[in-house]
Amino acid sequence: MLAPLYPILDIDLLAARSLDVASVAAAWSAAGVALVQYRNKQGSAREMLRDAARIREIFPINGSARLVFNDRPDLALIAGFDGVHVGQGDVSAEDARRIVGANRWVGVSTNSAEQVIEADKTSCDYIGYGPIFPTASKINPDPTVGLAGLKSARALTAKPLVAIGGITRKNCRSVLDAGADSLAVISDLLPGDDDGNLDGKATRQIVEEFLALLG
Length: 215
Known about the structure:
With 215 residues, the protein is of the alpha/beta class.
């Protein structure tokens, strides 16, 4: 069963806000986060595995949290993560399954009804769907699907549905009410310059606010 909050550690965004991956991961762990995705679109395999090792120290194997590697099923295995998430332009869900095996999660991103239907036919453990709202976390985002699109996607699959894209503390309840099982959040889980405080305490407080809204 997916946790209702699915934070994504996006390395590009962390760098833009001068935040350290281990510090953010530690704050999330302290706040009770139970599911985390590591996403690094630009780094080398060595850099990714270095980050992954730091994250794994904070969320130990057999602990209460699951760690998911974005794009790279091979590195997910090496890092000892609990699963992999692949997009439409990455390896297929079935190829990812063959690499990580039956005991790790495979998630797949979708942006249309047709992609949801195709993902539902695979062995993936959950389906990501979005962007629900406009998002700045991707350079070339897919078209926004909206809450109506999410409701339609919910009717197409019995697999857990992870909504992503522009989800904040202000709109998160509406996304759950539209049928999402879990909310993938990036930007709104991190403090920004306007918060006036970029330390771990501020980060933990933001996550605790999110969890309270979803509880």
